Structure formats: C-alpha cells, structure tokens
Amino acid sequence: MKRTVPLLIAMFAGIMLLASTFIPLTETWGETVTIWFDILAVGAFVLGGGNLLKIHLEKISSKRSGWAFSVVTLLAFVITLWVGLVQWGVNPPKLYPTHSWAGNYIEEGSGLFWIYDNVVYPLTATMFAMLAFYVASAAFRAFRAKNIEATLLLFTAFIVLLGRTYAGVFLTDWVPGFMAMITGMTPEHFNTMQLDELTGWIMNAPNKAGNRAITIGIALGVVSYSLKILMGVDRSYLGQD
Amino acid sequence: MKQSQLIWLLIFVVGGIFLAWRVSTTDMGRVWHHPERQIHQQNEDGSWSEVELSPSRKFDLHDDGDLEANQEGWNTWTVLKNRKGFNESFGTSLATAGMDPELVHDPVAAQAAIDGNPDMSDADREVLQSMALMSEDFILSPGRTFGLWLSAFFTLCIMSFLYKDNPFYKFAEAVVIGASAAYVMAVGFWTMLVKNLFSNLAPGLMRETFIPGLPEEIVFNGWYLVPALFTIFLLWRLMPMGGWISRWPLAFFIGITAGLRLIAFLEADFMAQISATMIPLWVSVQDAAGSMMLWDSVWASFTNIIIIVATMTGLVYFFFSVEHKGAVGGAARVGIWFLMITFGASFGYTVMGRIALLAERLQYLFGNWLHLTPPT
C-alpha cells in the first residue's frame, strides 16, 4: 500500500497521458487529467498554507527567536485569506446582479485586489528589483577577464547591458555614418555596429543557438528521466520507508 | 549614540520633515476617486442587463426615484491618482474648446460656460460636462490613500536591506510570506476548486451561488471525486498519523508530470529546436526589383552559419560519451565559447530586467507617492 500503489498510480497516470497523445479516442482523458493535476496543485497550495500555520504557531508557542515576525506572518496570512475567500468588496456580476457571490474576486476595488496592489506586488517587485544590486555586485567581484571564456562572457554582458539602454544608442549612433564615409558604402550596411543593433543580433544569433543547445540537452534529460519514472526504474519520489 | 545611529536618526528626521512639508503644500500621497453608479434592469426573460446612463447620471449618487423598483444599483469608482493632473487635462480640454482653462477651479461656472458655448458638438459638451462634474465631486479615497502609503512604506522597508538586515526588512519579509501564500490559495480556490472541482461535483449549488452562468448540460461528474479524494489524501500529511497516504497524490503528480513533460519536451524542446536549426547556409536576400543584395545576403548567411555552428558545438560540449580530445575537444571548446556568450547575454538581459523593475519602483515612489515626477 505504501510503495506499490503509488508506483502503480504514477505509471498509470503517466501512461494514460502518453496514450491520450497518440489515441484520438482518449484525447479528452488527457485534458481531464490535466485539470485534476491543477486541482491537486491547489491542494498542494493549501498544504503549504497548513505547513506555514503549523511552523509559525510552533515558533510562537515556543517563543523562539524572531517569534514576533511569525505573528506578523500569520496575521498577513489570515487577513489575506479571509479577504479573498469572503470576496470582500466584490460587486455582483453585471449579468447576474442578484448573485452576490458570483462577482470577479479580483476586480479592481475589491479587497483582494487592494492587497495585491498595495502589499504583494510592491513587496515582491522591490525584492526582485533589489537583485539588480546584488547581481551587479556579484558580477563585479566574479567577472575577471582571466581567459577567453571569461572575457567572452564579460564582453557580451557589457554589450547587452549597454545596448539595452539609451547609452548604447548615444555612444555608437555615429559608427554607421563614419564607416560609410570610410568605405563608400551606405550606412545601413553598418547598422549592426551600433550597440543596440549588435545586442539584437547577439540575442537572435549566438544567444539563441547557445540556448538551443542547452534546451535540447535538457529535453533529452527530461525525456529519459520521465521514462525511468513511468517504467518504475526511478522510485526516489517514494521516500525511504 | 553610535555614528550609524546618528546618521539614521538624521535621515528619518529630514525625511519626516520633507514628507510633512510635501503633504501640507501639495497633493502628494492622496488618491481621489469618484463613486460611479451602475444600474441594472431585469429583462422580460428574467435575465439582467446594465442600464446605459449618460456620463452625468453615471456619477450621480443620489436616489433615482424615477427608476423602477426591480433595478439594483451599486457603486464602482473612477480613480484619480493625481487631482492636479486631472485638472490639467480638464483645463486643456476647455482650452481646446475655446474656453478659459482657469474655469477648472470653479466647476459650477465651468458647467454654465459649457452649457452656454454654442460652438461645441453635443458629444464634446457631454464629455466636458462629465469632467466638470467629476472635478466638483471627487472625494478623497481613504482606502486607496492608505494603500499608497503602505505600498511606499513596504517598498522602502525592502530597500532598507541594502544597508543591512534590519527589523523593517524582516517585518516586510514576514508580511510578504503570509500575504502571498494566502493570495495564491485564494486565487486557487476561486479559479480551480470552484470552477473545476465544485462545478463538477455540485453543479446545482454552484449555479445558485458562485457560477450562475454554468451551462445546464454540466451535470454531476463522479470522476471528479478522484481529485477531491487525492486532495484530502494530500492534506492528510498534516495529520500526526497516516501521513504516508499523501504519497498517492504525490505519485499522481509525478506520473502526470512525467507523461506531460515527456511529450511536451520531445515536441517543443527537442524536435522543434532541431527543426529550427535546419536552415540554409546561404541566404539570398533580394530587393524589390528582384536583384540580389550581396551585403545583406552575406550577413544573413553568416548569421545562419553562426546559429548552426553554435548549436552543434554546444551539443558536442554536452556530449560526454566521447572523451573531449582532438576534433571533438576542439568542437567542445568552440561550444564553450558560444555558451559563454549565451550566459553573458542572459546575464545582461536579467540585470536589465531587474533594473527596469527598480526603475518602476522608483517611479512609483517619486511619481505616485511624492508627486516629484508625473504619476503613472
């Protein structure tokens, strides 16, 4: 029950999805199972919420260091969940004005929208924005033109950073005209020598190709690992006991 | 008092004085809104439709005695982040219509002037009238104003981490953990559990409560007891005993992911990528007259060659079944060069993305909150 049933479930679910791709009769099975997957994913979110409550309540009850911040976390969690589930401030839909629970739970003006707009978004966006400083600082310490590989990385990053700002245009917009004057060709022939154009070319040619090689490698790895799971060769997801 | 404490005290005092001065002398940190009435009317077939109101009626919050009893109304809002900005826009509209832009400061006189202006179409008159009404009746929105200050406060709390870990940052971090977890749960509840699970297990109840528009052909579907049961098994993990049952839904997750990913990656990331690399080594670019443009052809061909060579050599680098010596070693080395270019480009692209986010947050602080730059 503990190991065989889950093994069979994983094999059956995976093979059913594979079959739905190749057998038209079972096509809707794949769609249904994908919806089940999404439902279970929400179940996993609820499990995550339950774990969050458990961990922080334990921390508060044992008065461990920083327990006051656990109180803040729990308050933010409970308030947001309550506002979202009771549809605080949501208007009924236009077509069914007598169904007060049928409104758009995230419409502008609703409580959940307010929390997203004024709490969740500013906090997460600023956290990601802060990474700009840390990535730049890490790069400053780590990037050294010690060999060809490191120089290529440094040089490309420098071009892309400059090319995606107005500085890139400002610094190099004279180049096509200058080159045209020297060679007697039209300036359009040397457009790629402008940093913004060069950035576009780097993103569309060598960068695309490098990513392609990585993507193909990942795809092969995912396919082989998926096959190992479906054939029951890899059972690491079942744990130890 | 330590030197760092003194510096922070100074920053807080100067910042506080600056904020107090800005709040008292400008429109900073305030959000104005205008409640807007929506009215619905029941049709003969029992359905409801929104009653189209003129712009002036739309903003009229007084009781509509002339409306029938079966109509229901509720309020939505027109939000104004910057009343000064609205007045500037209203003034420009007045000036365009040949009227004095200074009338924005006297909405009653503006309405009279708009009514008395013969050189204006009815549509323009209605728009200007609604602007005059809005200008008169905008009220301070306490909820949105509080939200603006809270948002600015949280932004500054996170930014304070640049100095060092501190209680303000920890407070903001605690809030984001709780709020974002609950937000995802609430969204998941309404979008997946209600719309996909409950609508299949209790369609009648859903029609009466959450999803009145649920098609009649959707009836009870017993197959959906499986994900319901699996969800309960998953949550059983929180119980002190029998947590092993959560392996069943976990196995389902793993199996589905394996089945989905196997096909998806084979199609999109393997076959499609190989197919996209099968491109001509020589590209002939022609002008409108049909004659070949040599330089453009050479450049397009060079680009294609780079794509092919970089992909092939990159793959050689990841191929570990053969020792990287001789020709294979040389190809792998070229592959590393192209991969380094890729990592450099990805790094630059990521940093610029983060800087764009930072610029957006600074714009929020300096524009929407402090009104030092135009609000977005």
Count of extended strands of chain A: 0
By secondary-structure content and strand pairing, the structural class of chain B works out as: alpha+beta
- Percentage of residues assigned to helices of chain B: 55-70%
The fraction of residues in strands of chain A falls at under 5%
Order of helices and strands of chain A: HHHHHHHHH
Rg calculated over all Cα atoms of chain B = 32 Å
Number of helices of chain B: 12
Note the gap between the termini of chain A.
12 Å
Low-confidence stretches of chain B: 62-71
Q: Which percent range fits the helix content of chain A?
A: over 70%
Give a short summary of the structure.
Chain A is 71% helix and 0% strand. By secondary structure, chain A is mostly helical.
Indicate the topology.
The complex is a heterodimer of chains A (241) and B (376).
Chain A: H1 4-22, H2 27-61, H3 67-85, H4 111-142, H5 148-163, H6 166-172, H7 175-183, H8 195-204, H9 206-230
Chain B: H1 3-25, E1 32-42, E2 48-50, H2 55-58, E3 72-80, H3 83-96, H4 107-115, H5 122-137, E4 139-140, H6 142-159, H7 167-201, H8 203-208, H9 225-235, H10 247-277, H11 294-318, H12 326-369
Antiparallel strand pairs in B: 1-2, 1-3, 1-4
Describe the structure in your own words:
Helices cover 71% and strands 0% of the residues of chain A. With 241 residues, chain A is mostly helical. Chain A is extended, with a radius of gyration of 28 Å. Chain B has three domains: 27-140, no CATH class; 167-262, no CATH class; 279-366, no CATH class. Helices cover 63% and strands 7% of the residues of chain B. Chain B has helices spanning 3-25, 55-58, 83-96, 107-115, 122-137, 142-159, 167-201, 203-208, 225-235, 247-277, 294-318, 326-369; strands at residues 32-42, 48-50, 72-80, 139-140. In chain B, a hairpin with a 5-residue loop joins β1 and β2. In chain B, α4 (107-115) packs antiparallel against α5, α6 crosses α12 and α9 (225-235) packs across α10 (247-277). The longest helix of chain B has 44 residues, at 326-369. Chain B starts with a helix and ends in a 7-residue tail after the last helix. At the A-B interface, α1, α2, α3, α4 and α5 of A face β2, β3, α6, α7 and α9 of B.
